[in-house]
């Protein structure tokens, strides 16, 4: 027996050992079964909380989007004093409200309208919308059933009757304006107690408010569902006023966004994992049963009893707080892979109990792997939850990628993470964020190439690669590259690394893909926010630009509604009317203009509204603020909405007072002379045709007098145009004073006038001409100077000298030329002989021009002899014209023609050059000639470049002091001006002598003798001819010689023809003489012979 026991023990020992091993294995299996079950539940709970937080974040983000849209609409209404339905539709349509904000029924605006203005409001809205609008329900108010959660514990109390309000709040704008929403137009939200309570709370607080559950007016014909309306107040004059009283006073309306709770939840289903049940309570209702929504019939409390995970999140919604309860379901557990794996572990452990060492190793390894896998999943769920919450709060895109990298490492259990933006050409990428910092990869401007798995990831794949090491034993890393999309296009790569080669199994891959998708979702949100902000900014900038243009345009710009009341005025009209902008807006123009102007404005407004036509009209209005009469060009055009209905008027009134004054001034200038105010030639011809028609019909005569002021241009040239203008005005005043009121005095040019005298014969015209000449010759005191002028008049009589104004003008011009040829200061009556003389004078002028070009003119020289010694001292150059057909033409005839034709300057330069050249030639030949005298025309002297021409001549020929002498007539000397004096002094400094020709024949003033740098006086031949027979002439000659001696001048006697005249001159002390007694004017060759013989005789 004793021997058998050891054998039995030996035989049973394996069983005992096996049993022990089995027992140990079963015990170990039971232990690890419990561990696996706990870890699985923890991972499941963490995943569910992540999904639940993401659902809550989506709900908060959607509600925040509602708020953003409402504040955008609030800004639209606060930025403008009047928003048209077209502008509202354009703005709301651009936001794509019903597409972007899933679950929203509409976006609307409820206007705050006083009860007393309901009819006016309805009329304006019908005009804007084309009819079909009314405020409903109409007072007295209907009671409105509260559609909040029923209370079965107690009978529902009757809704209180609303007191008649001071305001109604009809929905005036709504988008989209479809068949469902059209019925809400005009609905007074104050008739619903719940809506009114929320709207009044929003008004008093200035903040966004959401109502308690209620029924929408759009759902009155169908099954009622729990719905809500969010209200945001809009105040007049912009910002939220301080204090409740001010807010109530300035309320303009509410932005109104209604939505149904089922639609709202349905819109979020794409962002809610399947098989998660949702229950929402409103903590602000203040009732035990505050349920707002439940996705099925099982409450959250019941789900707690069936081992499901329940997670609660508080959401602030306007002024309320919602509690969102999310619960898992069995279907969710299956989809999440949460089936209990413990039986499998137990079965495997029991089956492999014989292989204890392997089982222990396998279980240990499985435990480690499970722990690490559960930890990774838990960390990734945590990371997703954190980033989803951060995305809701994030305001700047630049923070997104660094945050994602940090959360992937700190919360997701990754070794490192980075984000790289693809380059524009798609061939490389730049690392813009990595974590931990400096953990590898290029930063900044470094561009890395897209190769291998990164290139595949850039096309949209999720790529896993192992880098370095051997099976994870030598420090290698498993690397995952995921595409990040923006608006569907891959724009970046998200890269994460882990030490474990098998770290990126399917479940982990799915969570990391979700992380990349969340980044793309955030980028799309930033784009939508940026687009919305850009749209709002562009709209604001457009409004500001339009406001800048309208406020600075030089016209009155305004808008009116269909009742003629101002809805917009620019600064110009405010300044013009002298009233405040606030006083104008909302009122017609009647109170700001006179009665007639108000009536015209109302009539034109009514015409535009009723007919739709554009009106343009000129009117003269009296500005109330200044009392000034102004002329305006008014344009009014109708304003139409999208349906073509006229809802208002755009008006532009431009002040054209100055333009009309300019036009009147231009008309005046076309008919009148600006200096004298006299009719010009155009107006004279118009009047002349009328006068001549009357004279022709009545048989009465008429006369045309052509007045020209003699040598008036010398006044302008010597004394300046201002003196000339003053002189003309003085003469016109004189002439106008003596003319009959029927006569027309007209100015043709600077110094030329016409007098058209009706009922005046030729004889009467002669008397009138004499009277006018006397007026012209009467001295005038201008600028302290006593000026005397003369005039010439040509007379033509109607009908003898012409049957039209053109013929009379031509005849008067011919007669004027005759008066000029007579020396001026006279008149001439036209006859046919004068016309022939005029033709001859014209021909002679043309011949003179040809003579200058063809070399027909000649210069002769007359000796100037010293009376004491008889020696020839100098010569005077005299111009002669031997005409090939008419013979010798005297200077007294062709010099005036040269001055009239403008040839005198060229002729004078030519003659002076010839004379100086001849003097230099004789001097070089040794002939004793001291000087050459040349006559000077006034026209030459008054030229600006005269002194320069003389200087060039002196330098060219090397003239010495006194070799050139210029002779001025006494008339030129008397036309004194500073300019004349300066010119003569300039010439004298060049060594040129100056003398006065024909002294004593001009004016009596001798003041010029001391002002001008003269050296010689020439005694006129008319005095020399009478010295022997006329004591007066002899006395004048003695006086001239004495005067010259007293002033230090020498004297030259002209025209000495007898020895007796020469003896007289010798006796009275005359220095030099010239005349036929010694020699006639000679050509250069004969004058040279004369000089040679004179030299021998005086030897």
UniProtKB/TrEMBL annotation:
Segments for region (Disordered): 131-159
Keywords tagged on the record: c-di-GMP, Membrane, Transmembrane, Transmembrane helix
Residue ranges occupied by any GGDEF domain in the UniProt entry:
700-832
Q: Which CDD domains match?
A: EAL, GGDEF, PAS
CHASE domain boundaries: 156-270
Lineage top rank: taxon: Bacteria
- Keyword Membrane among record annotations: yes
The subcellular location is: Membrane
Using the record's annotation, list all stretches that form the PAC domain: 617-668
A GO MF annotation of the entry reads: cyclic-guanylate-specific phosphodiesterase activity
PROSITE patterns documented for this protein: CHASE, EAL, GGDEF, PAC, PAS
Q: Does the keyword Transmembrane belong to this entry?
A: yes
Quote the cellular component terms of the Gene Ontology held in the record.
membrane
Q: What is its EC number?
A: 3.1.4.52
BP term (GO), one: signal transduction
UniProt cross-references to Pfam families, sorted A to Z: CHASE (PF03924), EAL (PF00563), GAF_2 (PF13185), GGDEF (PF00990), PAS_4 (PF08448)
Alphabetized PANTHER family for the sequence: BIOFILM ARCHITECTURE MAINTENANCE PROTEIN MBAA, DIGUANYLATE CYCLASE DGCP
Q: What is this protein called?
A: cyclic-guanylate-specific phosphodiesterase
Instruction: Give the organism the record lists.
Output: Parahaliea mediterranea
């Amino acid at each position: 027996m004793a021997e058998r026991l050891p054998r039995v023990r030996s035989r049973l020992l394996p069983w005992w050992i096996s049993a022990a091993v089995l027992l140990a294995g079963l015990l170990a299996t039971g232990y690890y079964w419990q561990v696996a079950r706990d870890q699985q539940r923890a991972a499941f709970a963490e995943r569910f909380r992540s999904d639940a937080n993401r659902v809550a974040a989506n709900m908060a983000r959607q509600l925040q989007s509602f708020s953003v849209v409402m504040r955008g609409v609030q800004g639209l209404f606060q930025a403008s004093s009047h928003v048209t339905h077209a502008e509202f539709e354009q703005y709301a349509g651009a936001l794509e409200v019903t597409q972007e904000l899933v679950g929203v029924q509409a976006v609307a605006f409820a206007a705050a309208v006083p009860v007393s203005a309901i009819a006016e409001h309805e009329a304006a809205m019908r005009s804007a919308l084309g009819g079909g609008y009314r405020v409903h329900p109409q007072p007295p108010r209907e009671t409105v059933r509260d559609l909040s959660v029923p209370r079965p514990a107690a009978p529902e109390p009757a809704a209180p009757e609303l007191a008649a309000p001071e305001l109604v709040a009809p929905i005036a704008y709504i988008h989209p304006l479809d068949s469902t929403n059209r019925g809400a137009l005009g609905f007074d939200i104050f008739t619903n107690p719940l809506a009114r309570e929320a709207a009044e709370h929003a008004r008093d607080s200035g903040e966004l408010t959401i109502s308690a559950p209620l029924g929408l007016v759009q759902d009155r014909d169908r099954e009622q569902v729990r719905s809500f309306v969010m209200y945001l107040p809009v105040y007049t004059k912009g910002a939220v006023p301080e204090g409740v009283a001010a807010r109530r006073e300035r309320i303009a309306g509410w932005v109104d966004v209604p939505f149904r709770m089922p639609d709202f939840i349905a819109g979020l289903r794409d962002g809610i994992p399947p098989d998660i049940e949702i229950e929402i309570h409103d903590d602000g209702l203040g009732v035990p049963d505050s349920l707002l929504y439940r996705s099925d019939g099982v409450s959250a409390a019941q789900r707690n009893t069936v081992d499901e995970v329940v997670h609660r999140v508080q959401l602030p919604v306007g002024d309320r707080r919602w509690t969102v309860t999310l619960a898992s379901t069995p279907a969710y557990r299956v989809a999440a892979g949460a089936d209990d794996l413990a039986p499998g572990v137990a079965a495997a452990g029991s089956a492999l109990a014989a292989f204890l060492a392997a089982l222990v190793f396998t279980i240990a390894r499985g435990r480690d792997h499970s722990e690490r896998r559960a930890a990774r999943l838990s960390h990734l769920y945590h990371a997703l939850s954190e980033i989803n919450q951060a995305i809701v709060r994030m305001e700047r895109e630049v923070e997104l990628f660094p945050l994602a990298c940090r959360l992937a490492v700190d919360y997701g259990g990754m070794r490192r993470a980075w984000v790289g933006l693809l380059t524009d050409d798609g061939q490389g990428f730049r690392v813009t964020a990595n974590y931990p910092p400096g953990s590898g990869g290029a930063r900044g401007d470094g561009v890395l190439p897209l190769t291998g798995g990164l290139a595949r990831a850039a096309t949209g794949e999720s790529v896993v690669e192992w880098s370095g090491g051997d099976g994870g034993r030598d420090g290698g890393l498993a690397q995952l590259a995921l595409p990040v999309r923006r608006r569907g296009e891959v724009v970046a790569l998200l890269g994460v690394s882990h030490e474990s080669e098998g770290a990126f199994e399917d479940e982990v891959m799915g969570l990391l893909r979700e992380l990349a998708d969340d980044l793309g979702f955030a980028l799309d949100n930033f784009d939508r926010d940026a687009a919305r902000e850009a749209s709002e900014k562009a709209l604001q900038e457009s409004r500001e630009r339009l406001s800048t243009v309208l406020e600075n345009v030089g016209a009155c710009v305004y808008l009116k509604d269909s009742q003629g009341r101002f809805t917009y005025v620019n600064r110009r009209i405010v300044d013009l009317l002298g009233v405040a902008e606030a006083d104008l807006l909302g009122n017609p123009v009647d109170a700001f203009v006179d009665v007639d102007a108000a009536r015209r404005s109302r009539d034109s407004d009514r015409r535009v509204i009723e007919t739709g036509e554009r009106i343009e009209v000129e009117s003269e209005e009296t500005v109330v603020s200044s009392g000034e009469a102004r002329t305006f060009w008014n344009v009014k055009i109708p304003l139409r909405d999208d349906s073509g209905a006229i809802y208002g008027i755009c008006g532009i009134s431009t002040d054209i007072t100055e333009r009309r004054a300019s036009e009147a001034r231009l008309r005046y200038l076309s008919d009148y002379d600006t200096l004298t105010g006299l009719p010009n030639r155009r107006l004279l011809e118009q009047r002349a045709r009328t006068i001549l028609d009357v004279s022709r019909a009545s048989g009465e005569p008429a006369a045309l007098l052509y007045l020209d002021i003699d040598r008036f241009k010398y006044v302008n040239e010597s004394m300046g145009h201002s003196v000339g203008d003053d002189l003309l005005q003085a003469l016109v005043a004189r002439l106008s004073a003596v003319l009959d009121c029927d006569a027309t005095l007209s100015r043709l040019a600077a110094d030329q006038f016409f007098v058209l005298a009706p009922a005046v014969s030729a004889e009467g015209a002669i008397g009138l001409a004499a009277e006018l000449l006397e007026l012209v010759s009467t001295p005038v005191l201008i600028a302290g100077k006593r000026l005397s002028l003369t005039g010439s008049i040509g007379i033509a009589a109607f009908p003898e000298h012409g049957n039209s104004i053109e013929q009379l003008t031509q005849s008067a011009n011919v007669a004027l030329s005759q008066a000029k040829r007579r020396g001026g200061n006279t008149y001439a009556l036209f006859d046919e002989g004068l016309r022939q003389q005029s033709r001859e004078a014209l021909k002679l002028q043309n011949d003179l021009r040809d003579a200058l070009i063809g070399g027909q003119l000649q210069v002769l020289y007359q000796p100037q002899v010293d009376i004491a010694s008889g020696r020839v001292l100098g010569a005077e150059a005299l111009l002669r014209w031997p005409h090939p057909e008419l013979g010798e033409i005297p200077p007294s005839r062709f010099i005036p023609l040269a001055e009239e034709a403008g040839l005198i300057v060229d002729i004078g330069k030519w003659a002076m050059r010839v004379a100086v050249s001849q003097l230099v030639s004789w001097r070089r030949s040794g002939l004793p000639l001291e000087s050459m005298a040349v006559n000077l025309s006034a026209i030459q002297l008054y030229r600006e470049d005269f002194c320069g021409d003389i200087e060039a001549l002196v330098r060219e020929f090397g003239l010495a002091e006194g070799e050139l002498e210029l002779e001025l007539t006494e008339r030129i000397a008397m036309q004194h001006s500073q300019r004349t004096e300066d010119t003569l002094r300039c010439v004298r400094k060049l060594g040129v002598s100056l003398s006065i020709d024909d002294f004593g024949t001009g004016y009596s003033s001798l003041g010029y003798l001391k002002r001008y740098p003269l050296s010689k006086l020439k005694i006129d031949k008319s005095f020399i001819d009478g010295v022997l027979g006329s004591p007066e002439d002899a006395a004048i000659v003695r006086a001239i010689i004495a005067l010259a001696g007293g002033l230090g001048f020498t004297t030259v006697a002209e025209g000495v023809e007898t020895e007796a005249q020469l003896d007289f001159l010798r006796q009275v002390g005359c220095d030099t003489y010239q005349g036929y007694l010694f020699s006639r004017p000679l050509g250069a060759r004969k004058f040279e012979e004369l000089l040679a013989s004179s030299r021998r005789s005086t030897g």
